[in-house]
Amino acid sequence: MPHRRHVVELPAMSPGGGRRLVIHRFGPAGGRPKVYLQAAIHANELPGTMALHHLMPMLAAADRLGRIRGEIVVAPAVNPIGLSQLVGNNHLGRYDLLGRDNFNRNWLDLSHAVAERVRGRLGADAARNVARIRRAAREALEAMRPASELQALRVEVMKRSVDADIVLDLHCDLEAVLHLFISRRDWPGRAEALAADLGAEATLYNDPYPEALTFSGVHSALWARLAARFPDAAIPQACFSATVEYRGQHQVNHRLGAADARNLYRFLVRQGAIAGRAGPLARPKADATPIEGMDVGYAPRTGFVVYLLPAGARVRTGQPVCEIIDPWDARGPRARLAVRARTDGVLFSRKPDGRLAWPGAVLFRIAGARPLAHRKGLSGLDD
Ligand SMILES: [Zn+2]
């Protein structure tokens, strides 16, 4: 079936308002594996949109040749609410200005609604259970009556994604190397293949799932929560879902976009969604590490920030990563306060928010293998 383009209308929030969302479909309707790709739920994170800009013509060409086996759904800029948030000549795409919600938190946990629908109807046949759970999830979404535009966006997006075998949510950081957030249940397996095919320099996993679920988290947690709820039934981890952080916000160019599209395409071939040969699977550049081993560098005081190491650097415990400088202190080097690594690992993200620091501001993140005492119980700080 040829490439189709769908327009989803969202309810207007003001007289004369009304936004819409465009979603593309490639391959046979109902084909498996079903893959759902979206970018820019944080609307000012466009490197993933750039990758999809280069990927979509490749998918359309493969579709014309009948090479797409699974159904591939693509939402290249999935958040028209966030796209519209121009404030004082700045684009603010991370939080909903109406309700102040982070666009990538509080996605719809369908596990309770699905459990109500499938209770007593699951058995030892995993494939049948998967089909039944997916149907119940779609029904639960159809039964929802969202009141606001943001709720409607969440419901309409999940109607397209909830029954997918593979969900990739494309984000970016401020200054970063390519990294992934995954569920521990998917490593090594498909997550390791994704890390290798995309060239991820760090992969971090949640275990257990955080409360305020991200888009990627909600698709993964659905299966884990139902499996925990119905331990006697055969419930596999039927959806592989990951957050892909495509480096830094300003790294939007054709060279990276084309390379990222080729890497995504190869992963889709490897997963059987597109006919062809993916070639030998490389080793990932890094092993997956726990979220509890992720050191987060916080600013201890006000000042401005200067980094001593580039994103992607390997660091040792105690090594200074950046300095907070008191702009009103005339003593030169004595006006600088070093913020140090508290683990060995990869400095995968720097967060220079305008280079200004305030107490508690996140300055950097390091992927370390060892769970850290000061990080125990914390999770879900992904994307
Ligand atoms: Zn994001």
Summarize the structure.
With 383 residues, the chain is an alpha+beta fold.
Describe this protein's structure:
This protein has 383 residues and is α+β, with helices and mostly antiparallel strands. The protein folds into two domains: 4-286, Zn peptidases (Aminopeptidase, 3-Layer(aba) Sandwich), CATH 3.40.630; 290-375, RNA polymerase II/Efflux pump adaptor protein, barrel-sandwich hybrid domain (OB fold (Dihydrolipoamide Acetyltransferase, E2P)). It has helices at residues 47-64, 80-83, 111-118, 126-143, 149-161, 189-198, 215-229, 254-270; strands at residues 4-9, 20-26, 35-39, 72-75, 86-87, 90-91, 166-173, 175-176, 179-183, 202-206, 240-248, 288-290, 294-298, 303-307, 314-315, 320-325, 336-340, 345-350, 356-357, 362-367. The strands form four sheets. It has a nine-stranded mixed β-sheet, sandwiched between helices. A hairpin with a 2-residue loop joins strand 5 (86-87) and strand 6. The longest helix has 18 residues, at 47-64. It starts with a strand and ends in a 16-residue tail after the last strand. The relative contact order is 0.14. The model has no long low-confidence stretch (mean pLDDT 95). Residues 42, 45, 104, 171, 383 line the site of zinc ion.
